[in-house]
Design a protein that fits this description.
Layout: E1 4-7, H1 13-22, E2 26-30, H2 41-50, E3 56-61, H3 66-76, E4 80-83, H4 89-93, E5 98-105, E6 121-126, H5 141-148, E7 154-156, H6 165-172, E8 176-179, E9 184-186, E10 189-190, H7 192-204
Length: 205
């Protein structure tokens, strides 16, 4: 099965439609106001209404409370929840949607918390102090190969670009790939050519 492709950090309708037209499977909407790719619930709702129904809307949260998550689900048509903070396993499991827990990976010890989280998938990103993803930094993909053995689908993030996503998929065989900064003109604004090239490279891997 081909890896699913998620374009994360979408901040406007134009970029959402670029991702959809390029053939992406999902777009990520960042509800963390500490991110340069943050969107309000109102803006995310506009993006949701503009997208075709087959595109998954992924809500990305960092230590949000349950009421915030529930509000975003209702207003933005979310189909997947992605948690990037210190959320507990119990917090992640309380919502009636597919859930993904993100982990910042620096070494083999970074993989030890994964099995505490019975979420539908795990997302692996590079560990950069004081950053919650979207840094464009790549980590050792051999660690992702090890994570594959732990029994959950893996979404691979961190430093992916149109130039290396094919190699990443070939090496890791992940359930999906997640890109943000690797297809941007500037934080929160996507480059149409890079988005198309990324999706095409992932599909041909």
């Amino acid at each position: 099965m081909a890896a699913i492709v998620k374009i994360c950090g979408i901040t406007c309708v134009e970029d959402a439609l670029i991702a959809a037209d390029a053939g992406a499977d999902a777009v990520g909407l960042m509800f963390y106001d500490g991110s340069p790719r943050h969107v309000s619930v109102g803006r995310a709702g506009e993006i949701h209404r503009a997208l075709p129904p087959h595109i998954s809307r992924v809500g990305v949260f960092v230590n949000a409370d349950a009421a915030e998550v529930t509000q975003a689900i209702a207003a933005c048509g979310l189909s997947i929840l992605q948690f990037h903070g210190e959320e507990t396993p119990e917090f992640c499991r309380q919502f009636p949607l597919m859930t993904v827990k993100a982990f910042r990976v620096s070494d083999a010890q970074s993989l030890s918390p994964l099995q505490k989280y019975a979420t539908d998938a795990w997302l692996l990103d590079a560990h950069i102090p004081d950053a919650r993803g979207g840094t464009g930094t790549r980590f050792n993909w051999d660690l992702a190969v090890e994570a594959q053995k732990l029994g959950r689908p893996i979404l691979l993030a961190g430093g992916l670009t149109p130039e290396n996503v094919g190699e990443a998929i070939a090496r890791v065989q992940p359930f999906g790939v997640d890109v943000s900064s690797g297809v941007e003109l500037a934080p929160g604004r996507k480059c149409p050519e890079k988005v198309r090239a990324f999706v095409a490279a992932a599909r041909s891997a």
